[in-house]
Amino acid sequence: MEVAVGTAALALALLLLRVLYGRCGSFRFFCKMGFYNGWILLLALVAVPLCALRGRDVHNMRIIRGLLQHVKHLYGIQMNVRGAQNFPPRQPYVVVSNHQSSLDLMGMMEVLPDRCVPIAKRELLYMGAVGLVCWLGGIIFIDRKRTSDAISVMAEAARAVRTQDVRVWVFPEGTRNHSGSMLPFKRGAFHLAVQAQVPVVPIVISSYRHFYCKSERRFNPGRCVIQVLPPLPTEGLGPEDVPALTERVRAAMLEAFEGLESELGPTA
Fold first, then answer.
1. Which of 137, 158, 155 lies closest to 147, judged by CA?
2. Rounded to the nearest 10 degrees, what angle do helices 104-111 and 60-68 cross at?
3. Are 79 and 152 in contact, with CB atoms under 8 Å apart?
4. 264 and 224 Cβ atoms separated by less than 8 Å
């Protein structure tokens, strides 16, 4: 009797959840985001022993990328990459990209070049298995609250770029931006590129607003375009040229972002 009652209660709960998922947009949004975060954690647990065999090594980013590339299919998100030929074929460089939400992880894994590691906030290092796999992947951690630490990390990154053929991925806005535009850029990535005398490769990820909006609790299938812009050289530039370089890159990225916004159409 007790088993039958328990089974009936479970069936009723599952039915209720299904009805809520189908009819309540907010409930559906939280379910999708909860699964997204939980799935990333599970994949991190899978990646840790695979990456640990090599230790902390930039080549582990291939493993991480391979494990994450399917996530877009779980959510029905079509990703189109344009301009991949703009990546310099045989030299290090600094990638700069706009930053909208945690969904940027999918776009990054779609286009991440070989031997390329992101620069991330130090807090990520302490997020259990996720932080461990990031460390094993060679991700560079920076404490944004300590200027001296940030400067030393950027200097070390510049040395790695020059001597170890490493590409670096930076979000120059410094934080997630849900406004549908771009925040002013911080100059750290551009100082790094100038110090290493390597090109800056801008990457623009189109707005998610057509299928995702945190404030509206909306997360539907949709389309995202990732556009790789032509690289900008930094040879011969010095620290005094960084402000102009920063604004030049931001202007080019903003123009591309707005162009993609117009192309993809109005918000769903």
1. 155
2. 120
3. no
4. no
CA geometry: angle at 35 spanning 118 and 216, to 5°? 90
* Burial class (CB within 10 angstroms; exposed 0-12, middle 13-18, buried 19+) of 124: middle
Strands of 125-256, DSSP E:
140-142, 167-170, 200-205, 212-213, 218-219, 222-228
Does an H or E element contain 47, and which? helix 25-52
pTM of the predicted structure, to 2 decimals = 0.89
Distance of CA 211 to the CA centre of its chain: 17
pLDDT tens for each residue of 178-234: 666 788 999 989 999 999 999 999 999 999 988 999 889 999 999 999 999 999 999
Report d(CA 15, CA 167) in Å as an integer: 49
Give the distance, in angstroms, between the CA of residue 125 and the centroid of all CA atoms in the same chain. 16
Q: Which residues lie across from 227 on neighbouring strands?
A: 82, 204
pLDDT digits (tens, 9 = 90+) for 61-118: 999 999 999 999 999 999 999 999 999 988 899 999 999 999 999 999 999 999 999 9
